[in-house]
Amino acid sequence: MSAAPEAVRLHTPAPSPPTTPTKKPASRPHVTIRGLSKRFDSTVIYDRFDLDIPRGELISVFGPNGCGKSTLINMVAGLIPPDAGQILFDGMRLDEIKFGYVFQNYREALFPWLRAFDNIAYPLKVMQVSPAERRARTEKLVVHLGVKLDLNLYPYQMSGGQQQLVSIMRALVVEPEILFLDEPFSALDYEMTLFMREQLQRIFMETGTTTVLVSHDLEEAVFLADRVLLLSRHPARVADFTPVTAPRPRTDATLSEPEFVGTKAHCLDVFQREVRRA
Amino acid sequence: MRAKALKPLLPAIGVAGLIAVWSLVSWQQWVDPVLLPSPIETGKALWTGMGGALGFDFVKTVYRTAASTAIAAVMGIPLGILLGSSELLYRSLEFVIDFFRSTPASAMFPLFLVLFGVGDETKISVAAFGAILVILFNVAYGVMNARKTRLLAAKVMGASRLRVLFDVMLLESLPQTFVGLRNGVSLALVIIVVAEMFIGSQDGLGHSVFEAQQLFDMPRMYAAIFAAGALGYGLNLLFLVVERRFVHWAGK
After folding, report:
1. Contacts of A80 in chain B (CB under 8 A)
2. Distance from B170 to chain A by nearest Cα, in Å?
3. Which of A65, A136, B45, B65 suits B187 as a labelling partner, its CA being 20 to 30 A distant?
4. What value of ipTM does the predicted structure carry?
5. Which positions ≥6 away from B48 have C-beta within 8 Å?
6. Are B61 and B69 within 8 A, CB to CB?
7. Residue B170 contacts by C-beta under 8 Å, 6 or more apart in sequence?
8. pLDDT digits over B5-45, tens only?
9. For residue A123, what is the nearest residue in chain B, using CA coordinates?
10. Which residues have C-beta within 8 Å of that of residue B217, sequence separation ≥ 6?
C-alpha cells in the first residue's frame, strides 16, 4: 500500500517532557490506520486516509465542522464500520484489545438505574468478572484516581461534570490500552469544563493511556494534547499533526505562556487555511 | 409560604365544591329527588353497601380486573419485548396490532361468548384481550425507543445482543411499560364493568349499577358508581406508586 503524502510519520523522536515519566518513548506507533475510506450518501468523508497514533500520548482531534472528527474515532472504536481500510492496534484488531469510550452525552450514556459505582463497574460485569473482584477493581480505580465523589448516588443525582467523570471512570475500569473521548466536555458549562480538563489531565498523567480526544474547542484541544491532529475539510486529510511541548501538569498559567500561545496560533492558522480552502 | 402550606389541600376544594353543589341541588329539589338522591343518602348507601352486597361486588370486580390485567401483562410484556427488539417483526405486525387495538373490545363480546360461554372466563378474556394490545404496544414502543447512546455504550463495552436486551433495553423500556400497564388496567376495568352489566352476570360492580337502576334504587346506583370510580382511581394510583418505587429514574 502506497502511503499518501499526508501520512504522518512518527519516527521523529517525540519531545517528551520529563514531568511525564509514565510515558513510554514513541518508538512504535500504537494505532495504525491505513487506507481508511468512508462516505455518507454522496459525501466522501474519508478517502484512503492514513494515520499513525503514537503510544502513550494524548491526541486531540480538531478540524472544521462536519469534517469527520467524531467519525474518525467512531470508526477506530468500532462504532461505525468503515467502507474500506484497516485499523490495527499493535497489529491487533479492535476485538482483541481493551479500550474505553466516553460519549459526549453522559446523560444518555450512563445507566440511570445503576448507582455511580455500579455504572463504573459495569464493563467488568460484561467481561464476566466476579462481583467481588468487580468491587475490588472499581475501588482500586477510585483510590488510584483520587476521585472525591459519592459513588452511591444515582447519575441523575449528580452534576454534569460528576456524571462525565463517572463515564470516564467507567471507560478506565477495564484498564484500557486506548481511551477515546468524543467531545466529552462540550455539554458542560465553562467552569465545569476547566475543572474537567484538569481532571482528565491528571487521569492521563496517572495512567499514561493512549488517548484520542475529539474537541471543538481549540484551547481545550491544545491544552490537553501531546499532539493536535488538525483535519482538513472532507474528504479529510491530516492538515497538520502539531506537537504541544508545554510540560505537564499544565495549569491556567500555561494558557498564557508564549510557547502555548504560539502553538495555539499555529493551529488556528492551519485551521483557518483549511476552512478557507473550501 | 402560606400558600405553599395550603397546596396539598387544594384537591379537597374541588371535592367540597362538588358536594356543596350537589347538596344545594338536591335540597332545592332542582332535580327530581328520585333521580338525584342527597349526598347523605348516597353516602349511607355506599357505607352500608360496602359492608354487604356492594362490597362483595367490589371484590368480584377487583378480582376480574386483576386477573385480566395479570394475564395481559404476562403475555403482553414478553411479546412487546420480542416485537420491539426486531424492527422487521414490528413493522410487519404493526398494522394488525394497531387495527385490533383500535377495535372496541366490546365488539368482541359475542365472539368470546361463543368461545368461553357465559362465565368469568369470557369477561376476563375480553378484558385481557383489550389490555394485552395496549401493554404490548407500549412495551414494544419503549424497547424501540431505548436511547441509542445507551445501547451503543453497552455495545462498545463488548456486551452481547442478549446482554444489551436484558441489561439495557428492558430497563430502558420500563417507564413506557408502566404507561402500558396503567392504560391496560384502566381499559380492563372498563371492559369488566361493561361485561358485568350485560352478559348474564350475577355480581360485580357493573351488575350492581345495572341492578340498582332496574330497581330504581338510586342511592345504591350512585354508591356503586362511586365505588367503581374509587376502584379505577385506586388502581391507577397503585401503579403510579409501584412505578415510582421501581422506576426511580423516570423523567430524570
Report:
1. none
2. 11
3. B45
4. 0.81
5. none
6. no
7. B81, B143
8. 788 888 899 999 999 999 999 989 888 888 889 999 999 99
9. B157
10. B45
